[in-house]
Amino acid sequence: GPIGAVAGAVVGGIAGGLAGKGIAEQIDPTAEDAYWRKEYPSRDYYDENLSYDEVAPAYRHGWESRANYKDQTWAQVEPELQKSWESTPSSPQLAWAKARRASRDAWDRVERTERPDDHQG
Predict the structure, then answer these.
(1) Residue 3: band (very low, low, confident or very high) from pLDDT cuts 50, 70, 90
(2) CA–CA separation, 37 and 35 (whole Å)
(3) How far is CA 119 from the centre of its chain?
(4) Nearest to 45 by CA among 91, 114, 116, 98
(5) In which region does residue 115 sit, left (phi positive, over 0), alpha (psi from -120 to 50) or beta (all else)?
(6) pLDDT at 77
(7) pLDDT tens, position by position, 90-113
């Protein structure tokens, strides 16, 4: 009945929240930053006029967003990610057209390192 449905939704929401928290805890921002600092010059979107420090917020946006949208694909959330990027005060110096590929790269890296069978927590 309705009470069971509400209880199921609450439990599902808690479980989903815990799974998202687990992914976020697996992401080490210091390690991600070090990885992308090293990798950025070798990426096909590298721009010698943009330092890593100028592109770093786009990478951070990607890895943080992946943790927040764990059950969705990039294609599903890209419009929302663009909107959040463009509304962040530190982002406008790098247009989404330039930030998108770095953000997607970081998103994909987190997605590849997720372990869906890892239920520690």
Answers:
(1) low
(2) 6
(3) 20
(4) 98
(5) beta
(6) 97
(7) 665 789 999 999 999 999 999 998
Q: What percent of the chain has pLDDT over 90?
A: 61
Q: Which of 31, 25, 92, 24 is nearest to 58 (CA)?
A: 92
Q: What are phi and psi of 113, to 5 degrees?
A: -90, -10
Q: Which pair of tokens denotes residue 58?
A: 């786009």
CA neighbor of 62 nearest in space, from 38, 35, 42 = 35
3-state secondary structure the chain: CHHHHHHHHHHHHHHHHHHHHHHHHHCCHHHHHHHHHHHHHHCCCCCCCCCHHHHHHHHHHHHHHHHHCCCCCHHHHHHHHHHHHHCCCCCCCCCHHHHHHHHHHHHHHHHHHCCCCCCCC
* Two tokens, residue 34: 């070090």
Q: Which two tokens stand for residue 80?
A: 């929302």
Query: Which residue has better confidence, 70 or 63?
Result: 63
Q: What is the pTM of this model?
A: 0.73
d(CA 33, CA 52): 10
